[in-house]
């Protein structure tokens, strides 16, 4: 669940800021972001967030926002995976609406090239260094075959595999993900230490063992300024940790609601006064999936 919770925070912040809009379910007036293409059948952890919210509301009702819970859960997920810890700035408030259109526009798919990735991050005020550091979240978690199937059989409509994919890994992935198969099988994002938050993600790129196209382009794009950053993180895990922490804080500050903006939701899936549940928090989320922690670009 750790990779999934980091991804949930990312997918929240890239759509109208870190305001827990991703948690809102469909209602008569809200079109949920959970049905957007980058989220549908891929985000996980909504039930975990609801369990956290229940415990927090029991202890101090009306104080801690769902947006802050997402930011804290991402940090704690890093710690539980033996990665860095950081002081999470708090005080975010929750949105009163969602934006499925923006979710489809702003969340980069795993097939983006480096230019497209940089643009998507720049639109959120994040630079190239932030992009490479945040991509390191793929040191944990898993991804579905559907996220990288094109690299295995028909890269960029060439009819051939991606030439930047290690041939041994290619054979392994083709066995796991048959062409025209259901695309639902899972594999680790980090081949070497899939459940430990370390810098092996970057070493994998050096060996052409990045799983997603958005991973490998950081190292295999000719002349790219990202290559030096990847090499620095390979050589210095402490440097990676420090940059990851700074970039997570920076990302967590995107478009936050403060003061009298928004609200502190009582239930994370509904704005206050508009719940389909008469008592207690909604714990059944229909859009959960079996996917474990794939992050579309981080």
UniProtKB/TrEMBL annotation:
<comment type="similarity">
    <text>Belongs to the peroxidase family. Ascorbate peroxidase subfamily.</text>
</comment>
<feature type="binding site">
    <location>
        <position position="139"/>
    </location>
    <ligand>
        <name>Ca(2+) 2</name>
    </ligand>
</feature>
<keyword id="KW-0964">Secreted</keyword>
<feature type="binding site">
    <location>
        <position position="33"/>
    </location>
    <ligand>
        <name>Ca(2+) 1</name>
    </ligand>
</feature>
<protein>
    <recommendedName>
        <fullName>Peroxidase</fullName>
        <ecNumber>1.11.1.7</ecNumber>
    </recommendedName>
</protein>
<feature type="binding site">
    <location>
        <position position="193"/>
    </location>
    <ligand>
        <name>Ca(2+) 2</name>
    </ligand>
</feature>
<comment type="similarity">
    <text>Belongs to the peroxidase family. Classical plant (class III) peroxidase subfamily.</text>
</comment>
<feature type="binding site">
    <location>
        <position position="17"/>
    </location>
    <ligand>
        <name>Ca(2+) 1</name>
    </ligand>
</feature>
<dbReference type="InterPro" id="IPR010255">
    <property type="entry name" value="Haem_peroxidase_sf"/>
</dbReference>
<feature type="binding site">
    <location>
        <position position="12"/>
    </location>
    <ligand>
        <name>Ca(2+) 1</name>
    </ligand>
</feature>
<feature type="binding site">
    <location>
        <position position="198"/>
    </location>
    <ligand>
        <name>Ca(2+) 2</name>
    </ligand>
</feature>
<comment type="function">
    <text>Removal of H(2)O(2), oxidation of toxic reductants, biosynthesis and degradation of lignin, suberization, auxin catabolism, response to environmental stresses such as wounding, pathogen attack and oxidative stress. These functions might be dependent on each isozyme/isoform in each plant tissue.</text>
</comment>
<keyword id="KW-0560">Oxidoreductase</keyword>
<dbReference type="GO" id="GO:0020037">
    <property type="term" value="F:heme binding"/>
</dbReference>
<feature type="binding site">
    <location>
        <position position="21"/>
    </location>
    <ligand>
        <name>Ca(2+) 1</name>
    </ligand>
</feature>
<dbReference type="GO" id="GO:0042744">
    <property type="term" value="P:hydrogen peroxide catabolic process"/>
</dbReference>
<keyword id="KW-0479">Metal-binding</keyword>
<feature type="binding site">
    <location>
        <position position="108"/>
    </location>
    <ligand>
        <name>substrate</name>
    </ligand>
</feature>
<dbReference type="InterPro" id="IPR002016">
    <property type="entry name" value="Haem_peroxidase"/>
</dbReference>
<keyword id="KW-0376">Hydrogen peroxide</keyword>
<dbReference type="GO" id="GO:0140825">
    <property type="term" value="F:lactoperoxidase activity"/>
</dbReference>
<feature type="site" description="Transition state stabilizer">
    <location>
        <position position="7"/>
    </location>
</feature>
<feature type="binding site">
    <location>
        <position position="19"/>
    </location>
    <ligand>
        <name>Ca(2+) 1</name>
    </ligand>
</feature>
<dbReference type="InterPro" id="IPR000823">
    <property type="entry name" value="Peroxidase_pln"/>
</dbReference>
<dbReference type="GO" id="GO:0005576">
    <property type="term" value="C:extracellular region"/>
</dbReference>
<dbReference type="GO" id="GO:0006979">
    <property type="term" value="P:response to oxidative stress"/>
</dbReference>
<feature type="disulfide bond">
    <location>
        <begin position="66"/>
        <end position="268"/>
    </location>
</feature>
<dbReference type="GO" id="GO:0046872">
    <property type="term" value="F:metal ion binding"/>
</dbReference>
<keyword id="KW-0408">Iron</keyword>
<keyword id="KW-0106">Calcium</keyword>
<feature type="disulfide bond">
    <location>
        <begin position="145"/>
        <end position="177"/>
    </location>
</feature>
<dbReference type="InterPro" id="IPR019793">
    <property type="entry name" value="Peroxidases_heam-ligand_BS"/>
</dbReference>
<feature type="domain" description="Plant heme peroxidase family profile">
    <location>
        <begin position="1"/>
        <end position="272"/>
    </location>
</feature>
<feature type="active site" description="Proton acceptor">
    <location>
        <position position="11"/>
    </location>
</feature>
<keyword id="KW-0349">Heme</keyword>
<feature type="binding site" description="axial binding residue">
    <location>
        <position position="138"/>
    </location>
    <ligand>
        <name>heme b</name>
    </ligand>
</feature>
<keyword id="KW-0575">Peroxidase</keyword>
<keyword id="KW-0325">Glycoprotein</keyword>
<dbReference type="InterPro" id="IPR033905">
    <property type="entry name" value="Secretory_peroxidase"/>
</dbReference>
<feature type="binding site">
    <location>
        <position position="190"/>
    </location>
    <ligand>
        <name>Ca(2+) 2</name>
    </ligand>
</feature>
<feature type="disulfide bond">
    <location>
        <begin position="13"/>
        <end position="18"/>
    </location>
</feature>
<feature type="binding site">
    <location>
        <position position="15"/>
    </location>
    <ligand>
        <name>Ca(2+) 1</name>
    </ligand>
</feature>
């Amino acid at each position: 669940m750790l990779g999934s919770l980091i991804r949930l925070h990312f997918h929240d912040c890239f759509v109208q800021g870190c305001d827990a809009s991703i948690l809102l379910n469909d209602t008569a007036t809200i079109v949920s972001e959970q049905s957007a293409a980058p989220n549908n059948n891929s985000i996980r952890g909504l039930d975990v967030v609801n369990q956290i919210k229940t415990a927090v509301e029991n202890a101090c009702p009306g104080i801690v926002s769902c947006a802050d819970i997402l930011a804290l859960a991402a940090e704690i997920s890093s710690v539980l995976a033996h990665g860095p810890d950081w002081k999470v700035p708090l005080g975010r408030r929750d949105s009163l609406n969602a934006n499925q259109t923006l979710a489809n526009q702003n969340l980069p798919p795993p097939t983006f090239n480096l230019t497209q990735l940089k643009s998507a991050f720049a639109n959120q005020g994040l630079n190239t260094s932030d992009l490479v550091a945040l991509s390191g979240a793929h040191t944990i978690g898993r991804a579905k075959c559907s996220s990288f199937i094109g690299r295995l059989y028909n890269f960029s409509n060439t009819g051939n595999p991606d030439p930047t994919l290690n041939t041994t890994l290619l054979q392994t992935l083709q066995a796991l993900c048959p062409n025209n198969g259901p695309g639902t099988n899972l594999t680790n994002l980090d081949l070497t230490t899939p459940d430990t938050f370390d810098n092996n993600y970057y070493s994998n790129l050096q060996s052409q063992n990045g799983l997603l196209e958005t991973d490998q382009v950081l190292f295999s794009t000719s002349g790219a300024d990202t290559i030096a950053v990847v090499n620095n993180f390979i050589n210095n895990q402490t440097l990676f940790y420090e940059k990851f922490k700074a970039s997570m804080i920076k990302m967590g500050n995107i478009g936050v609601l403060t003061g009298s903006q928004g609200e502190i939701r009582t239930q994370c899936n509904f704005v206050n006064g508009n719940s389909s549940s008469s008592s207690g928090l909604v714990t059944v989320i229909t859009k959960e999936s079996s996917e474990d922690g794939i992050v579309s670009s981080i």
